[in-house]
Amino acid sequence: MSKPDHGYTEDSIKSLDWREHIRLRPGMYIGKLGDGSQPEDGIYVLLKEVVDNAIDEHVMGYGTHVEVTVAEDMTVTVRDYGRGIPLGKLMECSAQINTGAKYDSEVFKRSVGLNGVGIKAVNALSEFFEIQAVREQQTRSIEFERGLVKYEMKSPKACEEANGTRIVFRPDRESFGNHVHYKLDYVRDMLRFYSWLNPGLTLTLNGEKFKSKDGLMDLIRAKLTEEPLYPIIHIAGQDVEVAFTHGTGYGEEYYTFVNGQHTTQGGTHLAAFREAIVQEARAFYSKQFEPNDVRGSLIAAVSVKVQEPVFESQTKTKLGSSHMEPGGRNLRGHITSVITAQLDNFLHKHGDIAKALQEKILSNEKERKEISGIQKAARDSARKAKVHNKKLRDCRIHLDTKDKQRETSTLFITEGDSASGTITRARDVNTQAVFSLRGKPLNCFGLNRKIVYENEEFYLLANALQIDENLEDLRYNKIVLATDADVDGMHIRLLMITFFLQFFPELIRNNHVFILQTPLFRVRNKKETLYCYSDDERQRAIHKLGKNAEITRFKGLGEINTDEFKHFIGPKIRLEPVMMPEHRTIKELLTFYMGKNTPDRQTYIVENLRVESELDFRAEEAAATLNAA
Asked: Residues 195, 342: one domain?
């Protein structure tokens, strides 16, 4: 019996032009779209693609300034002072896939943008895009709308401006949604990294300057959240530069780069560095140290220059170059050999730092041995309880699998049976798991890592996340604190954030920990229901639905029914990332918020307190205003 072809004919085969394909499948070019609330959202990739080109000009020796402006209406302008795109090639560079100068390795030997796609993706995904080049007192420009030409300057015109390229774009709300917005803090972080990787380059954001003198050493100084145990070690060899030190906390913290591109997911160069530092420590101190003892509390920056790098995605967040480079050089082997040789020379010349490094490794080793017995007992207990463990309601797909949905794997940490039951019934069983706390967890501020294994709840959580031994085995990409929006819920959030900051800070540094935003109010009439996440949203909803609208205040997750809750943890889930504040050490943060009560903290609470009665008063005021109108 023949199967139907479901209309599969010659007419089913379609060819899309470059802009249609980018707009239809934007994820292939810029990763997830997002609304700008997360640093990896697409609008920041658009900006990065434009700035990358300006940085490449600087790296090649042309231009020492890059100016970035972000207007309130989302219009972005990037002006560099490099050579300027050849005036006769503006159209090809902005609207023709696989066209660019970076295929010529003599012109751009260590460039990031090698595939001729980046600027074209920005063009196709912008409701307005203008490209202008200035070369030798001549200029030419072209304007586009969603990749289609709206104005083209046919012939160059005289111009008194300095050489360079100016690109203006405004992300397309048809693609990104009406709520898309730039968070300038994320843009600042991006420009800081560019400055640390390019000493001597000045970048500005709406007039604010970013410039570095000491490069990677400045990066480490800025990112240190505690006093280092010894001065920052800085070493450099052929196409490899490294800066690192040890702190007193837990975990490992890495910032890695390829040709100036921030590879947030690491890759070959990170693996080579982690291998090299262990290899050299074993050789220099003549002892077979455990890798985790060598790397515990390490903070490091690794920058490499690679000809024809291979990334695992268009967004270039992970280096996959394990192959032989042009000329026969094995990348991983080269990085390892450079680091071990340079580090060996450094340690021989700086005996005081070599001694401090050895003491830190031995201290890590001692602590590991002290808790090994507790670890074994905890594992045995967890293994026996695993079948009966009612705290974890697991999902089917995890981060450590090869499933295409692995990046969406999420663990909700909830309080109490009511909230846990609601989320469990509403969740996607494929990608969303639930871990239920029995109440307020222990305040672990000031405690050592033994508590992770001695406290059953903490250990079962670490075991569920699969981070009790190695964070590389993390089972869920997103760890979401889902607590009530009341005083107790806020306190539980603080206690859980304290746990992660104290023992697993890299989960926060690497953007794995979030707070679930659930609506505070429901405003509805007979025709429409609106969910409001703030008092301002509630007031707008009241004005829209009228004075007779019914207003419900949600005081706990358990009050929201399952059918409603599905929307709040579905595709339009609102998550607020838990982020590490700049220039504040972990010790300072935890001492202020979780240490002994102090006059400073009391003053802070009084000045920032907003009680529920204030919200109710503002709502009544808004309703009264509406009635009067």
From this structure: no
Q: In what order do the strands lie in the sheet with 240-246?
A: 233-237, 240-246, 298-304, 253-258, 261-262
DSSP 8-class letter at 508: H
Tell me the per-residue pLDDT of 438-465, one tens digit each, with 9 for 90 and over. 878 888 887 778 877 788 888 888 888 9
Tell me the whole-structure pTM to 2 decimals: 0.70
Residue 66 has pLDDT above 80, yes or no: yes
Query: Domain of 67?
Result: 18-210
Containing H/E element for 575? strand 574-577
**What's 252's domain CATH number?**
3.30.230.10
d(CA 588, CA 226): 9
Q: Say how many domains are in the chain.
A: 3
Query: Do 335 and 406 belong to one domain?
Result: no
What's the token pair of residue 301?
């920056």
CA dist 489 and 480 (Å) reads 13
Q: Which amino acid is at 387?
A: V
Please report the beta strands in 334-431, taking only residues with DSSP state E, as ranges in sequence order: 392-393, 410-415
Candidates 236, 356, 347, 217; CA nearest to 297 is: 356
What residue type is 10 in one-letter code? E
Same domain as 189, residue 132: yes
Please report, for residues 200, 218, 221, 407, the alpha-carbon distance to residue 214 in angstroms, rounded to integers and kept in the order given. 9, 5, 10, 36
**pLDDT tens digit string along 390-435?**
688 899 999 988 888 888 999 999 987 666 778 888 899 999 999 9
Q: Residue holding tokens 């307005």?
A: 128
CA–CA dist 122, 397 (Å, integer): 33
Burial 464-490 (b: 16+ CB within 10 A, else e): bbbbbeebeebbbbbbbbbbbbeeebe
- Pairing type for strands 202-205 and 65-70 reads parallel
Q: Is there a single domain that holds both residue 196 and residue 132?
A: yes
Q: What is the end-to-end Cα distance of the chain in Å, rounded?
A: 71
Question: Do 276 and 229 contact (CB within 8 A), yes or no?
Answer: no
Residues 157 and 235 reside in one and the same domain: no
What is the tens place of the pLDDT at every residue in 287-303?
Answer: 999 999 999 889 999 99
Tokens of 152: 């083209």
Query: What CATH number does residue 439 fall under?
Result: 3.40.50.670
The CATH number given to whatever domain includes residue 131 is 3.30.565.10
> What is the secondary structure of 550-589 as a DSSP string?
EEEE--SGGGS-HHHHHHHTSTT-EEEE--PPTT--HHHH
